[in-house]
Amino acid sequence: xxxxxxxxxxxxxxxxxxxxxxxxxxxxxxxxxxSEDAPQTSLDPAGEFARAPDxxxxxxxxxxxxxxxxxxxxxxxxxxxxRHKEGRKAAQFHGxxxxxxxLTVVPALILAxxxxxxxxxxxxxQGDPPEDVMRVEVIAHQFWWEFNYSEQGVTTANELHIxxxxxxxxxxxxxxxxxxxxxxxxxxxxxxxRLSGAQDIVPGxxxxxxxxxxEPGRFVGQCKEFCGLSHANMRVVAFSHTQEDFDAWVEEQNxxxxxxxxxxxxxxxxxxxxxxxxxxxxVEEGADAYQCASCHAVQPGLDAQPRTGPNLTHFxxxxxxxxxxxxxxxxxxxxWLRDPHGVRPGSKMPALDLSEDQISDLVxxxxxxx
Length: 370
Ligand code: HEC
Ligand SMILES: [Cu+2]
What we know:
alpha+beta; Immunoglobulin-like; 5-stranded mixed β-sheet; 10 helices; 37% helix; elongated; binds heme C
């Protein structure tokens, strides 16, 4: 009689292939970490407020590795040492108080030990932020960030600028429901992993986040709390500068928008104040027609309140736009004006009835706003 192979051995090849595929799939997920030069990682902290959680992570990882090796080692040892042998019978017993006590007390002690540095770090990071450091007000909108520097008189969007080597306190606020855009605001979370931990932003409530960067550099981040269709496109970029460069940036942002435009840019400037029909919108109670100027400030002339879109006074000085999703270039801005919801699902900017000529004039104007 032919010996049949046991079931596990017949499916072994299949399982090995399945396992290898799963491993490759998991490996591919590690490629989600953004661009090479500035990955979104908390494992490479660039400032003291990101370093503290990283130290905690290292301690936890070290303990976890020791536990893993001991537990898996014991398992493998038992599997080999007590494997099936002809004529040997398994011991039969029920419960073992000594082992159960050890397996309860040891993990409890490990967790209690871990809680000491964890709670300490939480209090260090969450304590009342110091009064004498620079503050930036951060307002989370669906799906973009507004940054107000009240001391410096600067308002910008999606790109945060800070001086390197010093603490900055972010005052995080959820936007009250936008007057023009109509819909209620939702919870967001601000996170630039190399500069600090994450902090939730709740409408009607102010929370604080302390950040700092040791060196000048560029750091990418992300809204970390699901907030609607374009949550994944709600990114943020931080630039840290030497004090000199930071002061220069402030000065540049405080300068009035360029005047005396000519050609396409001048035509675009006029279009900015013209009224266009709404082609499509995600906002239920919005108007049928708008000017760009209804929602966007360009100072002086079009001042900030109560406009609900990003301040465009120095739009061309930003490297990205629309939640730092797109590189700021003529093609992308044109695509944005043509069909905001096509490139950015759920965006509160309406699609206006613009011709291609009008779009290229508006792009020329926006690109002149340095
Ligand atoms: C009803 C209000 C509204 C109108 C009208 C409007 N926008 Fe917007 N706009 C917004 C909002 C809100 C955003 C942010 C949307 C987002 O990031 O998803 C935005 C974003 C932008 C941005 C990207 C800014 C940045 O830094 O991220 C540009 C450029 C822009 N709009 C240009 C225009 C132009 C040009 C017009 C006129 C043709 C116009 N907008 C009309 C509300 C409006
Ligand atoms: Cu979000």
